[in-house]
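Table S4 entry, ABC transporter permease subunit.
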Amino acid sequence: MATDTGRTTDTDRGVLEQLNDQAFRRLGVAGTSLFALAVGLFIGYILLVRVDYALLVEIIYPQFTFAFLRVIGIVLISSVLSVIAGVIVGLARVSRTRLTSSIAKSYIEFFRGTPLLFQLFVIYIGVPQLWSGSFPLQQFNYYAAVIGLTLNHAAYVGEALRGGIESIPDGQMEASRSLGMSYIQSMREVILPQAWRNSLAAIGNDQVILVKDTSLLTVLAIPELLSAFRQINSATFDAWTPIVLVAIAYLMITIPLGKVIRTLEERADPATHGGDD
């Protein structure tokens, strides 16, 4: 009888735990649904009541169009340069030469440990003061923007690639060296392709962050999207119309970029693309 009672108690406890789990799941679904409904109602209210569509059409060109194209240009240049520089930094970080590795580590620590806004100010204000005469570059704010974004995000790309390289078992390097490959050949042919695949998600996420970081370029007097928003808001005293336009503009960049990154991840994954290579 004692044994049957014990079994009954265990069974009852298991049933109660199942019921509690189901209740928590239902509560979570209900809470999420209510939150989504509230957000949807708020967005609907903004789009149907607060947005002035006549003003929206009026400000799309030229103010927002030029700001949007300017942001895309800066993002494209900075993204390509940051990935190239990040690969160099990542390789330097795992270098067998202690000095090279230490320099790369210091670079990563500095640019990850200080705010991007501070770095932009150092480049934009500090660098021209190193010249005794007039600074040779016109419109240096654009150069400062690209340099700042590139240097900052190269540190994150480099650290992501370092993690990808260190995730590869040491035996693969040893096996490739035993086949007669040099260290550089082993890195290029064996280690880097796998490391790139392992770190692609982190690198892609950083590139999306780079797009959003362009909002800081307003401090360099670059007429980007937030600058256009402030100008329109101060001229019309309408906040929500330019806010909606800014949000749409950023999403027009980040959503396609996210899809490109996911496509690259799928193509780089042998389980979903090619299988047995």
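Residues 1-50 form one domain.
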